[in-house]
Amino acid sequence: MSIKVQSLDKLMDFLLQQGVSFLAHAAIVLVVFTLAWVVASWAQRGIVRSFGAAHADPTLIRFLASAARYGLLVVALVSCLSAFGITATSFAAVIGAAGIAIGLAFQGTLSNFAAGLMLLLFRPFRVGDVIKAGQYSGTVKALELFSTVLVTADNRRVVLPNSALSNQPLENVTYYPVRRAEVLVPFPLRADAERALAELVERARKLSDVHFDPPPDARIQDFRDRAMNVLFGAWCDTEKHPNVVAALALIGKQVLDEARRRHPLTPKSLRGDAAEK
């Protein structure tokens, strides 16, 4: 009976020693990893400030800052594992032995990393450009190691995986400094087409944000729903595009209202419309 009690006491002492040792190592790991997290964040901000002061490419700055942050965290993780008796060599051997499983598990992450490198190399967009990708559009805030951050026109943050941007059509709205603004104005068939087109162009020329070369233009695009659809457009600086579209739409509304007043509906035209229906 005493032998069993002694064995149990030894087991409890052993478990207590191991538990204390484990908790001590865990506390050290927690402190080290917390410090590594803080240092990595400082390094990321430092790279952004340093390269920003040197007027380097913002896209490259964000990517390098993100790479430095994750690199420091990986080094800290490997160092913390050694506190539990797992050396870097053993860690590498384990990763090598389980390479296939890890590759499959991190397939999406690795593809995002590779896609980020391709985006950085070929530069389909830069930080500050407005892009459209799938159902999302917005201003590029940052190109990071695994994802790209967009800010939408209504100030929403959208995080897109880099692989999604590299594997689908992507439109860079602000790539060129000059862009064409267009609106479609449905004039009634009874309106004087030549006069309406001339008035649209004349009023567009008076807009301060519209370029004179190429000049504004208006042309009949098609005839649908008993109306002639006029495509009305002008060229402008890309950053002025939303304002010019709004101004063209207002001009189109004004000219359309004037055309309707000059050619109001008559009982005869109403009977003709009813017959067509």
In what range is the share of β-strand residues?
Answer: 15-25%
CATH architecture of the largest domain: Orthogonal Bundle
Largest sheet: 5 strands, antiparallel
End-to-end Cα distance, whole Å, is 106 Å
Number of helices: 9
| Count of distinct strands | 8
Which shape, going by the Cα principal axes?
A: elongated
Radius of gyration over C-alpha positions, nearest whole angstrom: 33 Å
Pairing-aware structural class of the strands and helices?
alpha+beta
CATH uppermost class of the largest domain: Mainly Alpha
What is the CATH topology descriptor of the largest domain?
Answer: Helix Hairpins
Mean pLDDT: 81
Helical content class: 55-70%
Number of domains: 3
Q: Show unreliable segments.
A: none
Spell the H/E element sequence. Answer: HHHHHEEEEHEEHEEHH
Commentary on this structure:
It is a single chain. With 277 residues, the chain is α+β, with helices and mostly antiparallel strands. It folds into 3 domains: 96 residues, Helix Hairpins; 59 residues, Roll (SH3 type barrels); 92 residues, Alpha-Beta Plaits (2-Layer Sandwich). It is built from 9 helices and 8 strands. The strands form 2 sheets. The protein has a 5-stranded antiparallel sheet. Helix 1 packs antiparallel against helix 2 and helix 7 runs antiparallel to helix 8. The longest helix has 52 residues. The termini are far apart.
Descriptive keywords:
single chain, 277 residues, alpha+beta, Helix Hairpins, SH3 type barrels, Alpha-Beta Plaits, 3 domains, three-stranded antiparallel beta sheet, elongated
